[in-house]
């Protein structure tokens, strides 16, 4: 190996090891973020607290209550004596929904008439409300089918008609962890590499050692590569760390190739490290570098499709998302980990990362060379 390059790498590793707090953050933060987001950034809504106002008190009303309580989506936590009491619980946030069974519900069912009930949902959180709305209809329809079968004495599914049987590929149980954990790999790689790489040149400038590097025979590219390689090593350690915890702790299946995942991750790292280097060579202080890094990281999180589907965004923001490298990396990660597909399935995304890596690293290197001059 080039001796000058090795010397710069050794120097950067020493810088990292001499600051144990930063090293701990770089190694422990991925685990903390993975555990926190793995449990909290989930769309799986289960056991919503529901209050019941049963004004009928018949066997039929109890059957309806049991049907909702047996569902994984709902948990009957309160029995109230009036709709006003239910409204109070909804106002306080003690419950997320309420089931109102009017008097005469059981008699209507016995007569063969339509028996209506009300299912009141707290819509202050649209994601929860949407799930509760769909689940309430599903439970009601299932019970309705059961009641009709008991009344007619036949299997209503044998009467013909349309029989839709959905089949979910790649993630049959619709576990949000299988969707979020692979994305966390890309998010953590971007966040850490940009944040800490942005400090490298600024730190040298603040410590007054940048002038010493300039007068040495070290070439600009050797200084760049020597400073970046230690962060590549740490980033791959973080990648392995997150992947192992995701598979063993969160039971996320790894369907694709680890070699392909490592190669795509290295390509993505070239873009994030380049962004960090560009910030570091442009900023005057470490505080300024930190703020610039956050200005890049935060929009990347929201415009990449990590939290919110790109299809749900306005067209202008969808167009803006094409400038975010994390957008392409998330598609690649989910394709490899969840779908288990090969390079042919995300060739366009890989090409986009190649273009980003070339453009960003070139711009960062030119900016870095100019700052040395």
What descriptive keywords fit this protein?
mainly alpha; abc type-2 transporter like fold; 2 domains; four-stranded mixed beta sheet; 6% strand
Folded structure, characterized:
This protein has 373 residues and is mainly α. It folds into 2 domains: 3-41 and 175-372, no CATH class; 48-159, abc type-2 transporter like domain (abc type-2 transporter like fold). The protein is 66% helix and 6% strand. The protein has 15 helices and 4 strands. It has helices at residues 3-17, 20-40, 59-70, 83-92, 105-111, 126-152, 176-197, 200-207, 210-214, 220-248, 258-282, 286-303, 315-321, 325-339, 347-372, and strands spanning 48-54, 74-79, 97-101, 118-121. A 4-stranded mixed beta sheet has the order 2-1-3-4, sandwiched between helices. Helix 3 links the parallel strand 1 and strand 2 (74-79). Helix 2 (20-40) runs antiparallel to helix 7, helix 2 crosses helix 10 and helix 11 packs across helix 12. It is elongated and about 95 Å long. The mean pLDDT is 81.
Q: What order do the helices and strands come in, and which of them pair?
A:
Elements: H1 3-17, H2 20-40, E1 48-54, H3 59-70, E2 74-79, H4 83-92, E3 97-101, H5 105-111, E4 118-121, H6 126-152, H7 176-197, H8 200-207, H9 210-214, H10 220-248, H11 258-282, H12 286-303, H13 315-321, H14 325-339, H15 347-372
Parallel strand pairs: 1-2, 1-3
Antiparallel strand pairs: 3-4
Helix pairs in contact: 1-10, 2-7, 2-10, 7-10, 7-11, 7-12, 7-14, 10-11, 11-12, 11-14, 11-15, 14-15
Helix content: 55-70%
Major β-sheet profile = 4 strands, mixed
- Please state roughly what percent of the residues sit in beta strands, choosing from under 5%, 5-15%, 15-25%, 25-35%, 35-45% or over 45%: 5-15%
Radius of gyration: 28 Å
Low-confidence stretches: none
| Morphology call | elongated
Compute the separation of the termini in Å: 26 Å
Tell me the number of helical segments per DSSP (H or I, 4 or more residues long). Answer: 15
Q: In the residues, how many domains can be counted?
A: 2
H/E element order:
HHEHEHEHEHHHHHHHHHH
| Sheet/helix structural class | mainly alpha
Q: In what order do the strands lie side by side in the largest sheet?
A: 2-1-3-4
How many extended strands? 4
Mean pLDDT: 81
């Amino acid at each position: 190996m080039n001796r000058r390059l090795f010397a710069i790498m050794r120097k950067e590793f020493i810088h990292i090891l001499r600051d144990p707090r930063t090293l701990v953050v770089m190694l422990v933060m991925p685990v903390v973020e993975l555990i926190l987001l793995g449990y909290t950034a989930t769309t799986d809504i289960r056991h919503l607290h529901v209050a019941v106002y049963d004004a009928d008190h018949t066997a039929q009303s109890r059957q309806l209550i049991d049907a909702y309580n047996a569902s994984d989506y709902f948990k009957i936590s309160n029995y109230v004596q009036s709709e006003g009491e239910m409204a109070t619980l909804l106002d306080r946030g003690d419950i997320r929904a309420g089931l109102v069974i009017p008097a005469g519900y059981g008699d209507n069912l016995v007569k063969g008439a339509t028996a209506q009930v009300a299912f009141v949902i707290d819509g202050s959180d649209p994601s929860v409300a949407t799930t509760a709305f769909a689940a309430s209809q599903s439970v009601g329809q299932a019970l309705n089918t059961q009641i009709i079968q008991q009344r007619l004495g036949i299997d209503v599914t044998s009467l013909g008609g349309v029989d839709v049987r959905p089949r979910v590929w790649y993630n049959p149980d619709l576990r949000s962890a299988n969707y979020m954990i692979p994305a966390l790999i890309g998010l953590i790689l971007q966040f850490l590499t940009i944040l800490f790489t942005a400090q490298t040149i600024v730190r040298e400038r603040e410590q007054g050692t940048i002038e010493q590097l300039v007068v040495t025979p070290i070439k600009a590219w050797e200084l760049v590569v020597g400073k970046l390689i230690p962060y590549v090593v740490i980033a791959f350690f973080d990648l392995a760390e997150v992947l192992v915890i995701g598979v063993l702790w969160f039971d996320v299946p790894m369907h694709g190739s680890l070699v392909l995942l490592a190669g795509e991750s290295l390509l993505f790292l070239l873009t994030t490290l380049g962004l960090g280097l560009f910030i570091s060579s442009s900023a005057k202080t470490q505080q300024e570098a930190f703020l610039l890094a956050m200005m890049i990281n935060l929009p990347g999180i929201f415009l990449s499709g990590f939290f919110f589907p790109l299809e749900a965004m306005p067209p202008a923001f969808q167009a803006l998302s094409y400038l975010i490298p994390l957008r392409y990396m998330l598609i690649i990660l989910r394709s490899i980990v969840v779908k288990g597909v090969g390079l042919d399935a995300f060739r366009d995304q890989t090409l986009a990362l190649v273009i980003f890596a070339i453009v960003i690293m070139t711009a960062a290197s030119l900016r870095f060379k100019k700052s040395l001059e």
